[in-house]
Design brief:
The complex is a heterodimer of chains A (about 220) and B (about 230).
Chain A (H helix, E strand, L loop, with lengths): L1 H12 L5 H19 L3 H22 L3 H8 L2 H7 L4 H30 L6 H26 L7 H27 L5 H30 L1
Chain B lengths: L12 E10 L2 E11 L4 E5 L6 H9 L6 E5 L5 E4 L11 H11 L6 H6 L15 H15 L3 E5 L7 H16 L3 E5 L10 E4 L23 H4 L3
Parallel strand pairs in B: 3-7, 3-8, 5-6, 6-7
Antiparallel strand pairs in B: 1-2, 1-4
Helix pairs in contact in B: 2-4, 4-5
Classes of the chains: A mainly alpha (about 220), B alpha/beta (about 230).
Chain lengths: ~220, ~230
């Protein structure tokens, strides 16, 4: 299992691994928004938590189809399915690897990019905390979506359509927690809901994803 | 086919009355064979007869339509059409990954058996097709599994590499392993037996019953209307 995690991390950081892609996309979105809505800092500050959350979510979405499609193409998925590792574990490990190469860098970059959007000083902690709690759910839901569409050639569009509605609760509670924190209100309730979504995704989706892969390999 | 007998040697693979299906269509049925330690069985038959489907069913990637498959408890080592190599990882990194997945440590014997020591640090994407295939087959050697399932293992191998691979299979059989393979190339394995799958082709569904789709839903469902 650890071998699989290390291999996926190594693949992501090698040339063409897509490690920088999500981060670059996130950077582009946050740099472009002030040009689009104007440089008034009050207006930017009001939308900053939401923009950062939407940007992180879309950046996450961008790299989802790599989770299983590449392994399917080169035959690794067949071999992993016959190897002495549980497929549920494979799904979980690959989701963790996706989070380490996408969700974690996005979480760390978000406060820095918050400066570009004039995020008020009180908001940085809550933004980072809400992303840290919410992005694992994005990776696990995304891994499940990638598992469902793994048997399809060029399933990227279907994957996005499938996963986006499932991302909405995470986005609502994540952005709400960041907004309430920024405005000095108590973010406890949306943070708890966010943590609940993440824990539920961690507990259930590896099994659903493994079932989807088994069906997809037939 | 190995004759069934009351030998005390436990069989590595026992397949009884197996029927396999692809996409809901039965393609082979009534298959029964055993593999004892040291035995190899070569599947023969024209393209599309179901060699790959049979191997994938035995490997557990497809559910059998009927019948039983008794496998070794530790599982099998399956080598399909694709080698499962990562282009940006080196030869040694690719092989070491599979060795760790299978819980074995040493990749050096596998590298030398497949004559890949000289290329250990090259990225897999720079290998030729035959070298990639040899790396894919080296994975079998680090799997430590007694039953090898091989689907056209000699594709894109030259004569010397086929000889190298035949030697690896022979050594595996000598260690008490077994191999079930689909190949049209004579590996020169004297001990290998042939199984022609043509004799086990599933009967086509009777005319006027709605074509092959019926076959996917036999059993209680059909019975409910008769």
């Amino acid at each position: 299992m650890l071998a699989l995690l290390l291999r996926d991390l190594r693949l992501a950081t090698r040339a063409g691994g897509g490690f920088g892609l999500s981060l670059a996309f996130f950077l582009i979105v946050t740099v472009l928004v002030p040009f689009g809505v104007g440089p008034q800092s009050e207006r930017l500050a009001a939308i900053a938590p939401g923009i950062l959350w939407v940007g992180a979510l879309l950046a996450c979405l961008l790299s989802l189809d790599r989770i299983f499609a590449l392994d399917r193409e080169d035959g690794s998925l067949d071999l992993l399915a016959t190897a002495p590792v549980p497929l549920e574990g494979v799904v979980a490990v690959k989701a963790v690897a996706h989070w380490l190469t996408t969700g974690l860098p996005l979480t760390l970059a978000a406060p820095v990019l918050g400066i570009l959007l004039s995020l008020p000083a009180g908001g940085y902690v809550w933004l980072a905390l809400s992303l840290a709690l919410g992005t694992p759910a994005l990776s696990f839901i995304g891994a499940f979506g990638a598992a469902v569409t793994v048997g399809l050639k060029r399933g990227g569009l279907l994957l996005s359509l499938l996963v986006l509605p499932l991302y909405i609760p995470t986005l609502i509670f994540g952005a709400e927690a960041a907004r309430r924190g920024t405005e000095g209100l108590s973010p406890a309730t949306p943070l708890l809901m966010l943590a609940g979504i993440t824990l539920g995704a961690l507990a259930l989706l590896p099994f659903a994803g493994a079932a989807a892969i088994r069906a997809g390999l037939r | 086919m190995a004759p069934r007998s009351a030998t005390p040697v436990p069989m590595i693979l026992t397949v009884s009355d197996l029927a396999v299906a692809q996409g809901g269509m039965a393609i082979l049925e009534g298959l029964s064979f055993d593999l004892a330690p040291g035995a190899a069985l070569v599947l023969r038959g024209p393209n599309g007869i179901g060699k790959t489907t049979l191997l994938r069913t035995v490997a557990g990637l497809l559910p059998p339509r009927a019948g039983r498959i008794a496998l070794p408890a530790e599982g099998t080592a399956y080598a399909g059409h694709a080698d499962g190599l990562k282009a940006v990882l080196s030869v040694a990194e690719n092989l070491r990954f599979w060795a760790r997945i299978y819980g074995t440590a040493d990749i050096a014997p596998a590298l030398s058996a497949m004559d890949l020591q000289a290329h250990a640090d090259r990225p897999a994407q720079t290998l030729s097709a035959g070298q990639k295939r040899r790396l894919g087959l080296a994975r079998l050697l680090v799997s430590g599994r007694r039953l090898w399932l091989l689907d056209e293992p000699t594709v894109s191998l030259d004569a010397a590499s086929v000889g190298l691979f035949a030697g690896a299979v022979r050594a595996h059989l000598a260690r008490g392993g077994a191999a079930l393979m689909a190949t049209h190339v004579d590996l020169g394995l004297d001990e290998a037996e042939l199984l022609d799958l043509l004799a086990f082709r599933a009967r086509p569904p009777a005319a006027g019953q709605g074509g092959g789709f019926d076959g996917a839903f036999d059993g209680p469902f059909d019975g409910a209307f008769t």
